[in-house]
Amino acid sequence: MNNYHKIIFLFFIISFISCNKSIETSDANIPIESININPLKSKKITVSSIFDSITYIPIGNKKDEPLLKEITKLEIFKFHIYILDKQLNNLYIYDINGNFIKKIGNIGQGPGEFIKISDFAINAISNEVIILDRTGRKILIYNLNGDFKYTNKINIMAQQLAVSNNQYISYTSGSDYFTKSKNSLGYNLFILNKDCSIQSKLFKYNKDLDNIINSKALDVNIDDNIVSFNYAIYDTIYLIKGGEIIKKINIDFNKSKLPINKINSENFKYYTNKTGYSRLSKVFYSHDYLFINYIYNNKIHFAIHRKNDKSLINSSFLENDIDSTSFSLAMPLKISKNKLYFTKTAQEILSNYNKESITINKRTITEESNPIIIIGHLKWKQ
Questions:
Q1: Closest to 369 (Cα-Cα) out of 356, 382, 354, 379
Q2: Which of 98, 136, 190, 267 gets the highest tally of CB atoms within 10 A of its CB?
Q3: Do residues 314 and 42 touch, judged by C-beta distance below 8 A?
Q4: Banded model confidence at residue 178, pLDDT cuts 50, 70, 90
Q5: Does the predicted model carry a pTM greater than 0.85?
């Protein structure tokens, strides 16, 4: 090999390493915040103590419109609601009042078609809707109206996808941590450029714990372009913007903290089911609030942290004092600004009223109706 070829080879190696760096989460320069949540002080609260009001959005039920099975994810962006129904394997667009607009894409293997929707995301900078087809190893890009633009292949068996500053954050779990390239082995979170090439890798693969990692570990605050990430059994939330971790939030569960160093795939159920231990379940981050679902004594609790004054609501049960549809609003699908978004099926709503039909927002709800979006408008009164 002559000197010219040596220089070219060295340049290639340096470029390859710089483009595939791994980010260690122990970086001392990352700001850290601690939030104390004591499950023993969790208490019953009323719906009216945290919400100024509740708004109901019945999803459209006109003839020839889709009959949804279950809303598994929703995003609100530019007066549209984007709804994923994984059972139906489809993504739908509705207006802000719940009127049906369009179904995005089709099942198949042609342009604009997918095999299975694993997740979807909104790119707030480029005004695009991105569908993740894990089975087809690709992402499909549409405009906000649902018109197909192009496809990018993705070499990672991604389970979830989020977008921040024109970069994709891809999460893999279980045996899907691997990629085709040996250079990419051993990580659970990948930062991808817009062409889906790997920019960096975060969170080293743990053989004992990987199969028990939270399957819904990513959420994005579109307003700030900040992605939140958390493992199911860990007590740390990571905030990511673009390709960098910008903050860690440690949740201090006091004496109920899980002994992470002792947990493996064999004794996981023992520790996570044992009375007295707490673990994170769902996390939703907005500009003003951090909403946390956690599990304690095998029951779902929630905490709402208001960032400007560090106030905390810590609840073991949400008691209905507004109407008979709202008492179980404990696990939202989204937080945006001061709004918490929940969904309920028509059957759940009717069972609370013990009626065969009711009218909400001038729409008659029956067992054959679509799910309903419920919005809780947060206030701060404890």
A1: 356
A2: 190
A3: yes
A4: low
A5: yes
